[in-house]
Amino acid sequence: MQRLPTLTRARAPLTRAIDVVDEFGERGTASIPAERPLTVYVDKRELVTLMTLGAHPEWLVLGYLRNQRLVGSVDEVESITVDWDVGVAAVKTRTGIERIEERTAKRVVTTGCGQGSVFGDLMDEIDTIRLPAATLTQAQLYGIVNAIRLQESTYKSAGSVHGCALFRGEEMLLFVEDVGRHNAIDTIAGWMWLQEPLMDGGDKVFYTTGRLTSEMVIKSAQMGVPIVVSRSGITQMGHEVAGKLGLCTVGRATNRRFLCYTGVERLVLQPALAGTRP
Amino acid sequence: MQRLPTLTRARAPLTRAIDVVDEFGERGTASIPAERPLTVYVDKRELVTLMTLGAHPEWLVLGYLRNQRLVGSVDEVESITVDWDVGVAAVKTRTGIERIEERTAKRVVTTGCGQGSVFGDLMDEIDTIRLPAATLTQAQLYGIVNAIRLQESTYKSAGSVHGCALFRGEEMLLFVEDVGRHNAIDTIAGWMWLQEPLMDGGDKVFYTTGRLTSEMVIKSAQMGVPIVVSRSGITQMGHEVAGKLGLCTVGRATNRRFLCYTGVERLVLQPALAGTRP
Q1: What is the ipTM of this complex?
Q2: pLDDT of residue B103
Q3: Do B49 and A109 touch (CB under 8 A)?
Q4: CB-CB under 8 Å, B24 with A271
Q5: Could you give the domains of chain A?
Q6: Looking at the DSSP assignment, which residues form a beta bridge with residue A206?
């Protein structure tokens, strides 16, 4: 029986209006996404400051700890208490995190939008990951792209955020936006942990508006999600890591177009759905 | 008389071709940007690993040290030796960096594409920055947007990179791309340092394809560049920091459209150039 952590449900506005002057010299207002620092303390020890939109800070912190491999199981976390008045997330673990100093010492500045401090040796761990068998049909892929197109979002109202989503087939389970897309995927990881043991990644598809960097690929694999779809492209490290993992990466996915970069055996192609060549 | 560091000129391919499968089920190739780890050693001590396209690694490392405030003057650096065979940049300083352990201890995961490990207290330093008086006319702004449009780029051939450029008025001095835009701006910072004392930022304009995050604003201010232009939007922290600095931020700059978010007094508006409202 898994004990789930106690979480606050801290909320804060996701957009704000600012004054602007346009090319006609006219004053107006524009909506921009919120962006606030959230300093994470683990058992009263300062760990990191995350800059976030702030939609789901507790899931974000839980997913951050998970994806950084600082916590191995959700029941190690007793509570996460977020207070936006002071910009602090206080994490209480049941038994402490072993060797936390040592495990957060290595610093890699990654390519992906934002992350940067991927602690430790995530790259070394990819050899240990075995992704479940799973496939996606071209029809389901088009369903995913269409669901994203229809989704109401901070991006539509304010721009300047990345969106990520978790799908089962073409059914959207969760849609998350953040000013850094690493936050968005960490938030999904945190949410998934809270659904366990009901939730595993094997029949899931991860969607991101951002590039398929090595970091996004690794995080998806860590969550056990073997298929990743993006409207953007792929980086070389993302391509290499996905190839090693046997993870299916699909990019440039807009309307009926896409490119499958790796793991094409997971894609059930239905070229008849693609229409006619332009 | 300033002593400039000795730099290698390490080169490596900027794109590679990968196999893809498209929506018609047909195999082909696509070009993607290179992305390689560069581990920076300062006086034989490992500092950080940067993931980079690799176009100008020596300027990147120099600018990284500058923007992280680890080196206060270019003549503190004796040499930077990059060897792509091993993915290493060896920095030799003339007299060592004081308290380097302490100064690289604080960790902030930023929003911007990639940076993440902005060491130390950059945010605390913004109060000490005084930006020079400088203005930009709307005609020059349009010249900048047009120069970027015409620029040959890895982005055009392979996508998935950010571009940054340094302008004097509408004259492009340097155009840099990287898989992380923090790398692109650091590369510009490194290059500017090598031009000093001829080069100061006061009459310069910084252009970025990416969002105007607090990090981009701070880095521009650190280089003494008081005007920043982007084709993308602005984040809340970017807006706040730019406001405090009196830095001019212009976003959504495409064709003849733009929005000025802060520092509009630096913009010489010429609404007649904007054409007619759509």
Answers
A1: 0.83
A2: 67
A3: yes
A4: yes
A5: 6-122 (no CATH), 136-274 (3.40.140.10)
A6: A166, A228
